[in-house]
Design goal:
Layout lengths: L1 H39 L1 E3 L7 H20 L8 H5 L1 E5 L4 E5 L1 H10 L4 H8 L6 E3 L9 E3 L5 E6 L1 H9 L1 H10 L8 E8 L6 E7 L10 E5 L20 E3 H4 L10 H17 L2 E2 L2 E8 L7 E2 L2 H11 L20 H7 L12 E3 L11 E2 L13 H7 L17 E3 L3 E8 L3 E2 L2 H13 L10 H14 L3
Parallel strand pairs: 9-10
Antiparallel strand pairs: 1-4, 2-3, 3-7, 4-5, 5-6, 6-8, 7-8, 9-12, 11-18, 12-17, 13-14, 14-15, 16-17
Helix pairs in contact: 2-5, 9-14, 10-11
């Protein structure tokens, strides 16, 4: 009996050793893969990935949440109940909670996004992508397979902060529909048995489409810890650079420079009212193709895009807006052309094309427009289309964050708006003043942070 027991014990010990060895090998292999992936910055979450199960649940839950919106028509106008609404959907292995669903659905609608399109991107068969950033945040970052939407895990405090300020965030976007603030498209919580609850948000990616982007930057307007080693020349590594990497360069926008400076001022002033700091100005650029540099903008398209841009119902708090301000389908422009037979113009409009038949930022070059007398009220629309909210936008799926300069296309947006200037940040500010005398660092008061980022944009644009 004792021999038998000893033999069994030895076998168990041997099995345990094999199991430990297997786990050790697996950890080493996984660690090696993570090191490779960290270099790449962006990689597919396949079945061997630690987040595969979680992201599959996210996809399933988001598909059902969006379907609920599809099945329930949006209200004509948002109510207080819509902002406080919580919907729980029970799935086989988890529960998904959706916060303020009608509010975010209305915002998606105002951006020219259909719910089916949104659902398809979030729940496509293709795996999510994980983005490994050099951010100090402990959050996990995921991208949909088409790279159009970002999913980011958030703390409970951050989610509460967003939801408590959601109404004024929506009011800001209503007042400034061409705002550069990141567009939050959904807030959710996933509950898996025997696991910690995870909150996450869905955002529109500022860098979409990213196929031709040559450089990416995260700008905070300061010096300390604001350098990142660039990727080796010729490599496919995705590296987000920082302020010091951008020194000596400029965002060259010509006529659109005043618009950008003013919009950054408006958006950062709003963030100052929220008492937040440490947000980033995301910036990327890519060269314009030769056929994108200068294209003629038809008068019909100008009229239609202008009319849509000045549409009074263009509001993220109403469900009646079919598309983002400034975007017009080519068919609509064609239908309008018959109304323009009486029109004469002496202006020259330039715009660029995105390579897929879409049209990009148009701007007046300063010549006079003779308004056709038969257009009546539309004349007033044309006179104001250069105002802050009347920028002609590109005709593709991420128009609010794209601005074309003379030679480069720029992707610009403001992200990470959850850091409140509370007691801990005030202490950190005092400590950094001692540690980094005569140097600029990120932890400063919201008014100082706002002013400094605006100054950076002033100094780095032409």
């Amino acid at each position: 009996m004792s021999v038998s027991i000893m033999s069994q014990t030895e076998m168990e010990m041997s099995g345990a050793n094999v199991s430990r060895h297997s786990r050790t090998v697996k950890r080493r292999r996984w660690g090696g893969l993570r090191q490779q992936w960290k270099l790449l910055g962006l990689f597919e979450i396949d079945q061997q990935h630690e987040f595969y199960s979680l992201t599959c649940m996210m996809k399933e839950g988001l598909c059902a949440a969006v379907q609920n919106t599809i099945d329930n028509p949006l209200p004509d106008e948002l109510s207080e109940d819509d902002y406080s609404l919580e919907v729980t959907q029970i799935h086989k292995d988890f529960r998904m909670e959706t916060y303020a669903g009608p509010v975010f659905a209305t915002l998606r609608h105002s951006l020219g996004m259909t719910e089916k399109e949104y659902q398809q991107s979030l729940s496509s068969e293709g795996s999510y992508l994980q983005f490994i950033s050099n951010s100090k945040s402990k959050a996990d970052f995921f991208l949909t397979n088409d790279k159009r939407f970002f999913l980011k895990t958030q703390s409970k405090r951050e989610v509460r902060f967003l939801l408590s300020n959601l109404r004024i965030y929506m009011e800001h976007l209503e007042k400034y529909p061409h705002s550069l603030l990141v567009k939050f498209l959904g807030v959710h919580r996933i509950k898996i048995p025997h696991h910690k609850m995870k909150y996450f948000i869905v955002m529109q990616s500022v860098f979409y489409p990213d196929d031709r982007i040559t450089a990416r930057y995260d700008i905070k307007g300061c010096e300390v810890s604001r350098w990142t080693d660039p990727a080796p020349e010729g490599s496919q590594i995705i590296v987000v650079l920082k302020d010091l990497n951008f020194e000596g360069q400029f965002i060259k926008l010509d006529q659109q420079r005043p618009w950008l400076i003013r919009q950054v001022e408006l958006d950062t002033a709003f963030l100052q009212t929220l008492n937040v700091l440490d947000y980033s100005l995301l910036l990327a650029h890519q060269p314009l193709h030769q056929d994108e540099l200068s294209q003629s903008l038809s008068f019909a398209t100008l009229i239609m895009r202008t009319k849509k841009s000045v549409n009074a119902t263009s509001s993220p708090t109403h469900a009646t807006t079919p598309t983002v301000p400034g975007v017009v389908a080519e068919d609509d422009a064609a239908l309008l052309s018959s109304d323009l037979n009486c029109a004469t113009t002496e202006c020259h409009i330039t715009e660029t094309h995105n390579g897929n038949g879409g049209t990009d930022n148009g701007s007046l070059t300063g010549e006079k427009i003779e308004q056709p007398s038969c257009m009546g009220a539309d004349s007033a629309d044309l006179q104001v289309f250069q105002a802050q909210n009347r920028r002609l936008l590109p005709n593709f799926k991420n128009p609010l964050h794209v601005i074309d300069g003379a030679e480069q296309r720029y992707f610009i947006g403001i992200i990470d708006i959850f850091t409140v200037y509370g007691f801990r940040k005030r202490l950190e500010h005092l400590w950094k003043r001692l540690r980094h005398p005569r140097q600029t660092f990120s932890t400063v008061s919201p008014p100082d942070y706002c002013h400094r980022l605006c100054q950076w944009v002033q100094d780095h644009t032409k």
